[in-house]
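[Amino acid chain]
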Amino acid sequence: MNYATIKYYDIANGPGVRTSIFVSGCRHHCPGCFNEVAWDFGYGQPFGKAVRNEIFASCQPDYIAGISLLGGEPFEPENQRELLPFVRNFRALYPNKSVWCYSGYTWEQLTGSVPCPARCEVTDELLSLLDVLVDGRFVEAQHDISLRFRGSSNQRLLDVPKSLAAKSPVWWEDEQVFATHSM
């Protein structure tokens, strides 16, 4: 797997200060995508051991809230297989930090209730290691800059542990000050 970029000290892709990993490779090709260059699976640099260790080290300070996985598309099967051991190791090192993931695939597709070419032998385990899934393709006609942590109004911020327990999508609850704020 390749990665397009890594943003250390990111505040745009989840709550708090995070390290965001933008993987390469995406088959969605959403019109208006902000990261079209990352559609190519060969773009960027290899996601090797040294890079992974740099990411782990970047998360050591207490003020780092966690990691966010973006793309490209983290849930392309090729990327899932590489991300699973990485996220397992992150969880072992930092059990109290959060893992967010952005995917153009929906909860229903990733959990198998709707057929999806992205589902593979590691999908269920990778999902189980996430705290929040921001699901759904970016839809340019529904683009809204006032939305927190998502680009278009069709996308959902799902609390993965609660969704798995309920066997249906459960929205992530934002801090009250943000949940009631309107622009």
Summary: Strands lie at 2-10, 17-23, 45-46, 64-70, 98-103, 132-135, 156-159. DSSP finds six helices and seven strands in the chain. The mean pLDDT is 95.
